[in-house]
Amino acid sequence: MRQLTFIILLFLTVAAAKAQGYYFNLGQNFTKYDYKNSSGQTNANVKSDNGFMIDFGYQWNISYDSKWQYKAGLSYQQFNAKGKNDTFDYSWNTNYIGIQNTISYEIYTSYGKEVAIKINSGFTGATIINGEQMINSTSYDLTKQEEFKGLFIQPHIGVENDFYINESIRLGIGYRFSKAFRINSGSKESLNFINNTFYLNFKYII
What we know:
Number of strands: 10
Largest sheet: 10 strands, antiparallel
Helix content: under 10%
């Protein structure tokens, strides 16, 4: 955890020195657990649930006309699920933090540049910071469960728009689809997180 904290702080320090703007996203993940046990079987009792997501960081123009942009920053996400059978009620509530990288391309700009639409793609590398499984009234620590630990890589693709407020401020809404999967897993069990994310975005241009 100390190494992760050091890497994040170093990254933010270097990025801030070269940033051309800042971004902040706030929204919700609607998560589906793609789980298979050691026999390759799924669990039909596990259902989707929603959780918060927050992204913030820095952005740079990477083309002379500003249509291509690169964004990098931190991402906090909840990957949650729930379920029940004849005997038990289940819930999984997890919190992950990671570093996000995104490239976006502006596909439409209104005549007066009041509105812009962008498509984007990238990935996040994330690890669990805390998590809890509830089975009826009994709680279990998910940070000790092998299938939730380690580094998750989360490719994503999406679309968002910008509404021009003034020379410095842009507001908008966005959507992205992603799938987070654990790398270097030696377990016979597998767990991936499939997400549909809707968010509000705020940008401050330097």
